[in-house]
Amino acid sequence: THLALGNLFRRRGEVERAIRIHQNLIARPTLDKEQRSQALLELGQDYLKAGLFDRAENLFLELAEYRLHNQQALRFLMQIYQQEKEWEQAIATCRKLARATGNTLDDVIAQYYCELAEQALSAKDATGAHGHIKQALAADHQCVRASILLGRLEALQGRHREAIKAWKR
Fold first, then answer.
1. Distance CA 83, CA 78 (A)
2. What's residue 131's pLDDT?
3. What is the pLDDT of residue 31?
4. 67: phi > 0 → left, psi -120 to 50 → alpha, else beta; which?
5. What is the C-alpha separation between 90 and 19, in angstroms, rounded?
6. Contact (CB, 8 A) for 136 and 110
7. What is the pLDDT of residue 24?
């Protein structure tokens, strides 16, 4: 009942009340492991909705470590890392999620590498950008964004034939 009530408050935008309910629930010593993990997952979602990413991240990392609600925790962690633009952590989390689900998430990983390449290009780090583009294409050889970035990088370096080749691909 407490989980449902806290969830209702969170959906209605009353995040502070939802947090209080879930914190009080977790403090109960009589909860079994499954109930406690469900309450931790709900509290993490409360923190996420409230914009308290560091607290939410800690709870989701704990849940993923104990393999309780692993897939949900990893999905929420990916969401946090995307919002915080922590692409390396997003890649690592995405790989863990792919192993947990058995599904390939190579297209998502390639996009994260493209984000890293964009950051490197903004910092005028051509070598770093090239490395991240190669990793993106290794993850997903059909990644259009990586091919466009590679063409842009080649053009910036004056290698126009290679740029055209990348863009055609």
1. 9
2. 96
3. 81
4. left
5. 26
6. yes
7. 79
Burial class (CB in 10 A: 0-12, 13-18, 19+), 118: middle
Amino acid letter, residue 1: T
- Chain CA centroid to CA 34, Å: 24
* Contact by Cβ (8 Å): 111, 80: no
Q: Which amino acid is at 133?
A: I
SS3 string, the chain, reads CHHHHHHHHHHCCCHHHHHHHHHHHHCCCCCCHHHHHHHHHHHHHHHHHHCCHHHHHHHHHHHHHCCCCHHHHHHHHHHHHHHHCCHHHHHHHHHHHHHHHCCCCHHHHHHHHHHHHHHHHHCCCHHHHHHHHHHHHHHCCCCHHHHHHHHHHHHHCCCHHHHHHHHHC
111 with 145: CB under 8 angstroms?
yes
Q: What is the pLDDT along the chain (169 residues), one digit of tens a residue?
A: 777 777 777 778 877 888 888 877 888 888 888 888 888 888 898 998 888 999 999 999 988 887 778 899 999 999 999 999 999 999 999 999 999 888 989 999 999 999 999 999 999 999 999 999 999 999 999 999 999 999 999 999 999 999 999 999 8
